[in-house]
Amino acid sequence: MSAATDPGFAARQIGEIAAALPGATAVFRRRKLDFCCGGAVRLADAVAAEALPAIEAELAALVPGVPEAPEETGALIDHIIARYHDVHRAQVPELIRLARRVEAVHRDHPEVPQGLADLLTRIEWEMTDHMQKEEQGLFPMLRAGHAPAMAMQLMRDEHDDHGLRLRGLEAITHGHEPPEDACNSWRALYAGTAQFAEDLTQHIHLENNVLFPRFGA
C-alpha cells in the first residue's frame, strides 16, 4: 500500500515508511527514531502511545497532494511558492545529507551514486538563486499586472538548465531505482530524489505553461 493511500502509519515498519515517503527521514531524525538499523520495528511499537498521533500527523503532512492550479494569478503565485519553492527548500538539504551518508557508507558498492551529493548541492545553489529572483523580482511585477518579457524568458532559460540537472540526477541514480541490497537510507534517498524530480517538473510546468502564458509569454 502506498503512502498516499495508507489511512495510518502506526502498523507500518519505520524503515518501510522511511524508504517510501520522502521527508520521513527528517521526521524520524527529529524524533530520534532509528529508521536504518532499527527499521524493522512498527511505528506504534517504537514510540510512546501519546506521541504517536503527532508523529502520524507529521508524516501525513508529507504525502503530496495534486491541487488544481488556481485561476487567479496572485493565488497561483502563492500556490507555487508554498507548494514548490518552500517544499524544495526543505527537500534538498535532507537529500544532500542522505546522499553524503550513502556515498560514505557504501563507497565500495558498485552502484554507489558517487557525486550525487555534489550534484544536489549544485542544484540547491542554482534553485535558491532562481527562486529568490522570482520571489523578489518577477512575481511582484506579475502580481501588479506587468509583463516583463525578458525576465520571463530568463526564467524559462533557467528552467531549461534545471531540466538538464534533472536528467543528470536520473542518470546518477539509475532512474531513482536502488539496488536490491540497498539499506533503508539508500531507499529513502532515491524515494526522495524521485519525489523531488516530480515536484520540480510540475513546478516548471506551472510557470512555463500556466503562469507565464497569462502574460503573453
From TrEMBL:
GO terms for cellular component: cytoplasm. It is found in: Cytoplasm. Keywords: Cytoplasm, Iron, Metal-binding. Residues 77-214 form the Hemerythrin-like domain. GO terms for molecular function: metal ion binding. It holds the Pfam family Hemerythrin. This is Iron-sulfur cluster repair di-iron protein. It comes from Falsiroseomonas bella.
